[in-house]
UniProtKB/TrEMBL annotation:
Descriptive protein name: GTP cyclohydrolase II
Pfam families noted in UniProt: GTP_cyclohydro2
Names of required cofactors: Zn(2+)
CDD domains (alphabetical): GTP_cyclohydro2
Keywords, ordered alphabetically: GTP-binding, Hydrolase, Metal-binding, Nucleotide-binding, Riboflavin biosynthesis, Zinc
This enzyme's EC code(s): 3.5.4.25
GTP cyclohydrolase II domain location: 32-179
Amino acid sequence: MKVQQRSREKILIRTKIRVPLITSAGREMTGEVHTFSGLSDGLEHLAIGLGNYSAATRPLVRIHSECLTGDVLGSARCDCGPQLHESLERISERGGVLLYMRQEGRGIGLYNKLDAYALQDLGYDTFEANRQLEFADDERDYRPAAQMLEALGITHVDVLTNNPDKVVQLRRHGIHVYGMERTGVFLSAHNRRYLEAKVRTTRHELAVRI
């Protein structure tokens, strides 16, 4: 067990373990999984270090919000699963960290996300459905992501994302972001409306015609 403390915010790195990972393309890699205590939202987020992340001068960082339906069950109505596997491969090659955030459904929780799915099936887009449930378009707070990076001694990064809000929030919380690298566009007939809504409502940088 490796324990490390950052005095100002008292974030503890509690455990580091090495786990084998296999991507959807069949590539094998090893990740160092860090757990934390003292994060601002009290949730069980993970940081997975890949490649030579501790020595990288510009580590590549992906903030990936948990998506049970996409990451685990392979749902085609979002692009979360393909983004996760692409991120693992690109970060492993470059050296960096994948932050797996327990912020299901853009922060509204799994049950509420499933309720939002039912509303989407009635014709609402992903953001309109959240509003029908009296949530904001995006409830996620990335302060814990910044806290985890700082606890790992990582303060200067490139961010792997199509979502400019992640960059804005990391900078707000003291992380120097050199640049924003886009993920692939995993467009299909099943997720077109979902991706179009992200471009239209939250200015995601996706090459999707709306």
